[in-house]
Amino acid sequence: MIFSPTEFKTKLIAMAKEASNGDNHAATKPPPTPSPLRNSKFFQSNLRILVTGGAGFIGSHLVDKLMENEKNEVIVADNYFTGSKDNLKKWIGHPRFELIRHDVTEPLLVEVDQIYHLACPASPIFYKYNPVKTIKTNVIGTLNMLGLAKRVGARILLTSTSEVYGDPLVHPQEESYWGNVNPIGVRSCYDEGKRVAETLMFDYHRQHGIEIRIARIFNTYGPRMNIDDGRVVSNFIAQAIRGEPLTVQAPGTQTRSFCYVSDMVDGLIRLMQGENTGPINIGNPGEFTMTELAETVKELINPDVEISMVENTPDDPRQRKPNITKAKELLGWEPKIKLRDGLPLMEEDFRTRLGVPPKK
Ligand SMILES: NC(=O)c1ccc[n+]([C@@H]2O[C@H](COP(=O)([O-])OP(=O)(O)OC[C@H]3O[C@@H](n4cnc5c(N)ncnc54)[C@H](O)[C@@H]3O)[C@@H](O)[C@H]2O)c1
Ligand SMILES: O=c1ccn([C@@H]2O[C@H](COP(=O)(O)OP(=O)(O)O[C@H]3OC[C@@H](O)[C@H](O)[C@H]3O)[C@@H](O)[C@H]2O)c(=O)[nH]1
């Protein structure tokens, strides 16, 4: 068939439109219907929820909260790189709970209604340890979970990060800010990885109609953080309990905003259950320099420890504080726990794991 130049152009535009990311979902086929048993009157109408990375710090607290609802069945998929079965020991053997050793860089076949996709090392020490694996986890892992969401018609939530703003030139950071990221730096396996993961989420949403939710999480702390995983709060608490100097990385004037883990979990669940795709910042806007954080930990946990200044790592963001207007307006969410109240809630868990008895 021979087309005139005008016909050819019209055809090309039509093809481009079909393949575009617009509202046109021509390529979408509806997800398969679940087993007929799910609609039987004898079947308990549970929501089946997959939590990738559920053996980690935030993931295990999220699982605790989801399991409180008797209508939820929870499946955790984790490769235990930074997580541990210990974090989930109270649920192992529970009839509504399943734990799968699985690496998200491989496809996963399960039938679920919702996916909380957390799997990814989060502490800079761990994500820099094997950067190629970190970027594979972010890119291939997120592709696999989106493929799963598409196949079964599940809603999927990605835990992105404040690190997508890089070393921000806008302060506080709102979701419309595109960030200031070094694409070839030592942190880019993580921050660029998460940026691609966000892109994939939106492309699947636009192209295939997948229901997506994106949370941009700011520094979160609480019990079950890995001891010595390099993150500042867990480092300072462990150092204070051991009576070792608190290592402030120079210059100490860099800022972070710390959110207690129960507030974070509440925000993630509201985002999943709400109607907004995001991205939405979830974090506590209380902003502290690292020197202020060290002084607070010293005062609350062990007034006898010293504070020492040590060398920093490359590309450390100089300031970070979330604008949470969107979370307030769209999710009715704001954090409840102040840093001074949250830090002491970590002490007992850290003392138990470090084998250091409580102060007399
Ligand atoms: N904690 C924070 O301050 C923070 C801030 C921003 C974003 N986040 C995001 O929240 C999520 C959870 O963070 P966290 O602090 O609980 O970290 P974490 O390291 O405690 O948990 C991550 C979990 O993912 C698992 N995992 C890693 N790679 C995997 C893979 N390839 N396949 C399967 N499982 C894998 C780990 O074993 C671990 O259980 C991460 O996606 C992280 O990027 C966390
Ligand atoms: O012992 C330490 C460790 C860290 N720091 C400083 O504390 C600040 C925070 O460092 P952390 O390693 O806790 O965390 P970062 O803010 O760099 O990255 C974090 O941000 C967002 C998430 O996605 C990541 O999971 C998380 O690790 C940095 O300025 C770092 O230089 C110290 O002063 N002393």
Automatic annotation (TrEMBL):
<keyword id="KW-0520">NAD</keyword>
<dbReference type="InterPro" id="IPR044516">
    <property type="entry name" value="UXS-like"/>
</dbReference>
<dbReference type="GO" id="GO:0033320">
    <property type="term" value="P:UDP-D-xylose biosynthetic process"/>
</dbReference>
<feature type="domain" description="NAD(P)-binding">
    <location>
        <begin position="50"/>
        <end position="344"/>
    </location>
</feature>
<keyword id="KW-0963">Cytoplasm</keyword>
<dbReference type="Pfam" id="PF16363">
    <property type="entry name" value="GDP_Man_Dehyd"/>
</dbReference>
<dbReference type="GO" id="GO:0048040">
    <property type="term" value="F:UDP-glucuronate decarboxylase activity"/>
</dbReference>
<dbReference type="InterPro" id="IPR036291">
    <property type="entry name" value="NAD(P)-bd_dom_sf"/>
</dbReference>
<dbReference type="InterPro" id="IPR016040">
    <property type="entry name" value="NAD(P)-bd_dom"/>
</dbReference>
<dbReference type="GO" id="GO:0070403">
    <property type="term" value="F:NAD+ binding"/>
</dbReference>
<comment type="similarity">
    <text>Belongs to the NAD(P)-dependent epimerase/dehydratase family. UDP-glucuronic acid decarboxylase subfamily.</text>
</comment>
<comment type="pathway">
    <text>Nucleotide-sugar biosynthesis; UDP-alpha-D-xylose biosynthesis; UDP-alpha-D-xylose from UDP-alpha-D-glucuronate: step 1/1.</text>
</comment>
<protein>
    <recommendedName>
        <fullName>UDP-glucuronate decarboxylase</fullName>
        <ecNumber>4.1.1.35</ecNumber>
    </recommendedName>
</protein>
<dbReference type="GO" id="GO:0042732">
    <property type="term" value="P:D-xylose metabolic process"/>
</dbReference>
<feature type="region of interest" description="Disordered">
    <location>
        <begin position="19"/>
        <end position="38"/>
    </location>
</feature>
<keyword id="KW-0210">Decarboxylase</keyword>
<keyword id="KW-0456">Lyase</keyword>
<dbReference type="GO" id="GO:0005737">
    <property type="term" value="C:cytoplasm"/>
</dbReference>
<comment type="function">
    <text>Catalyzes the NAD-dependent decarboxylation of UDP-glucuronic acid to UDP-xylose. Necessary for the biosynthesis of the core tetrasaccharide in glycosaminoglycan biosynthesis.</text>
</comment>
